Amino acid sequence: MTSLTDCQQRDAQDPLRSLRDQFSIPGGVIYLDGNSLGVLPKTAAARVAEVVTQEWGSGLIRSWNSAGWFEMPQRLGDKIARLIGAAPGEVVATDSTSINLYKVLSAALHIAAQDAPQRKLIVSERSNFPTDLYIAQALCAERGLRLQLVEPEEIPAALTPEVAVLMLTHVNYRTGAMHDMAAVTAAAHAAGALTVWDLAHSAGAVPVDLNAARADFSIGCGYKYLNGGPGAPAFVWVHPRHADRFWQPLAGWWGHAAPFEFTPGYRPAPGIARYLCGTQPMLSLAALECGLDTVLAAEPLGGMAALRAKSLALSDLFIELALQRCAGHGLGLATPRAHEQRGSQVCLTRTNPKAPDGASGAYAIVQALIARGVIGDFRAGDGDRHPDILRFGLTPLYLGFEDVWQAVEHLRQVLESGEWRRPEFNQKMAVT
Ligand SMILES: *Cc1c(COP(=O)(O)O)cnc(C)c1O
């Protein structure tokens, strides 16, 4: 069994250890929720203050030119591109993940309607993130289409000649299970369907190569593994073979070919710029850039491949320790053991045969851990196939092996002492 000393030795030998110094992490906290909100980069507060006092305060409207505000979505998009296998000029940082999904799913459906009007189905996963499913439902209602929800193993059989778009999240938010993007995209294309990939739990977490996979459309989140701050702008990528084929439906002036000609007719900008809508939030983009730079700082140390190797080592260790040290407390593993099927999080289930109402206790266990400074989160289930989840995000930029050891030790103590049964840990809050 791996000991605390082993973990400390692994930290001492970790070539990525210095990257942790880029962040302000509160004392006494082991942060296992970087998959929900990344931690604060040390540069962010000063950079945002500079944008407020100098670029806004002194530069005023001139800063759209002099401070490069107008090009921010493209400039940050080029930084994101380096993390997801996209080329410069193929990505913009803008709007939210939900809004960008509406744009790209509309575009995919429009292209499918032109090329194969008989295809009336969107296929997705039943346990996809709800906002993705809601946006798809809204588009189905708008266009007389149907959304078919399947389990991951049912995807190949679901790719019938009726399918217009296969819309998937690359790494599942509930289980951390990861799809083989290249293989699934190839299967979708062989069946005549387009693909939309949500990279919310992938960008900055696992290596992604959108162009090598020949994916069609992609979106992702700025505030999770990219550390861009609460509600940070998201991003959007469209394969160049599709980018000029369609006006996305939120055709605002920032996506116009010549916004400052102020002409009454819409003419889309070439390429990905047409996926912009209106004026972008400069303070938020400035903070997002600080977050992106924390991930790009790994490039000289091996980049996403090195981050991936450490992430897998951390999640392997978490799985090993949690199942050994907490044995007998009803914990199960929802995350795949196979490396190629795992994102950067470990998700546990819990069965609690003694509970009269069958409640898993997962929510209260997570609350008891948070009270001890071990911050993970809880995701409610909806039955046997999708049980309640205790979710632990493992961000290799700022977590070490000893952090994992200590987190599991707290979990063991919470379970063994039964302290999670205390009433205060069983009161549901608005955000879980
Ligand atoms: C986090 C997440 C989102 C978030 O969407 P917002 O528009 O930022 O609220 C969307 N999709 C997936 C798969 C996510 O994990």
From TrEMBL:
<feature type="domain" description="Aminotransferase class V">
    <location>
        <begin position="75"/>
        <end position="295"/>
    </location>
</feature>
<comment type="pathway">
    <text>Cofactor biosynthesis; NAD(+) biosynthesis; quinolinate from L-kynurenine: step 2/3.</text>
</comment>
<feature type="binding site">
    <location>
        <position position="279"/>
    </location>
    <ligand>
        <name>pyridoxal 5'-phosphate</name>
    </ligand>
</feature>
<dbReference type="GO" id="GO:0009435">
    <property type="term" value="P:NAD+ biosynthetic process"/>
</dbReference>
<dbReference type="GO" id="GO:0019805">
    <property type="term" value="P:quinolinate biosynthetic process"/>
</dbReference>
<comment type="pathway">
    <text>Amino-acid degradation; L-kynurenine degradation; L-alanine and anthranilate from L-kynurenine: step 1/1.</text>
</comment>
<dbReference type="GO" id="GO:0043420">
    <property type="term" value="P:anthranilate metabolic process"/>
</dbReference>
<keyword id="KW-0663">Pyridoxal phosphate</keyword>
<feature type="binding site">
    <location>
        <position position="223"/>
    </location>
    <ligand>
        <name>pyridoxal 5'-phosphate</name>
    </ligand>
</feature>
<dbReference type="InterPro" id="IPR000192">
    <property type="entry name" value="Aminotrans_V_dom"/>
</dbReference>
<dbReference type="InterPro" id="IPR015422">
    <property type="entry name" value="PyrdxlP-dep_Trfase_small"/>
</dbReference>
<comment type="subunit">
    <text>Homodimer.</text>
</comment>
<feature type="binding site">
    <location>
        <position position="198"/>
    </location>
    <ligand>
        <name>pyridoxal 5'-phosphate</name>
    </ligand>
</feature>
<comment type="similarity">
    <text>Belongs to the kynureninase family.</text>
</comment>
<keyword id="KW-0662">Pyridine nucleotide biosynthesis</keyword>
<dbReference type="InterPro" id="IPR015424">
    <property type="entry name" value="PyrdxlP-dep_Trfase"/>
</dbReference>
<dbReference type="GO" id="GO:0030429">
    <property type="term" value="F:kynureninase activity"/>
</dbReference>
<dbReference type="GO" id="GO:0030170">
    <property type="term" value="F:pyridoxal phosphate binding"/>
</dbReference>
<feature type="binding site">
    <location>
        <position position="97"/>
    </location>
    <ligand>
        <name>pyridoxal 5'-phosphate</name>
    </ligand>
</feature>
<dbReference type="GO" id="GO:0005737">
    <property type="term" value="C:cytoplasm"/>
</dbReference>
<feature type="binding site">
    <location>
        <position position="201"/>
    </location>
    <ligand>
        <name>pyridoxal 5'-phosphate</name>
    </ligand>
</feature>
<feature type="binding site">
    <location>
        <position position="169"/>
    </location>
    <ligand>
        <name>pyridoxal 5'-phosphate</name>
    </ligand>
</feature>
<feature type="binding site">
    <location>
        <position position="253"/>
    </location>
    <ligand>
        <name>pyridoxal 5'-phosphate</name>
    </ligand>
</feature>
<protein>
    <recommendedName>
        <fullName>Kynureninase</fullName>
        <ecNumber>3.7.1.3</ecNumber>
    </recommendedName>
</protein>
<feature type="binding site">
    <location>
        <position position="98"/>
    </location>
    <ligand>
        <name>pyridoxal 5'-phosphate</name>
    </ligand>
</feature>
<dbReference type="Pfam" id="PF22580">
    <property type="entry name" value="KYNU_C"/>
</dbReference>
<dbReference type="GO" id="GO:0019441">
    <property type="term" value="P:L-tryptophan catabolic process to kynurenine"/>
</dbReference>
<dbReference type="InterPro" id="IPR010111">
    <property type="entry name" value="Kynureninase"/>
</dbReference>
<feature type="binding site">
    <location>
        <begin position="129"/>
        <end position="132"/>
    </location>
    <ligand>
        <name>pyridoxal 5'-phosphate</name>
    </ligand>
</feature>
<dbReference type="Pfam" id="PF00266">
    <property type="entry name" value="Aminotran_5"/>
</dbReference>
<comment type="function">
    <text>Catalyzes the cleavage of L-kynurenine (L-Kyn) and L-3-hydroxykynurenine (L-3OHKyn) into anthranilic acid (AA) and 3-hydroxyanthranilic acid (3-OHAA), respectively.</text>
</comment>
<keyword id="KW-0378">Hydrolase</keyword>
<dbReference type="InterPro" id="IPR015421">
    <property type="entry name" value="PyrdxlP-dep_Trfase_major"/>
</dbReference>
<dbReference type="GO" id="GO:0097053">
    <property type="term" value="P:L-kynurenine catabolic process"/>
</dbReference>
<feature type="modified residue" description="N6-(pyridoxal phosphate)lysine">
    <location>
        <position position="224"/>
    </location>
</feature>
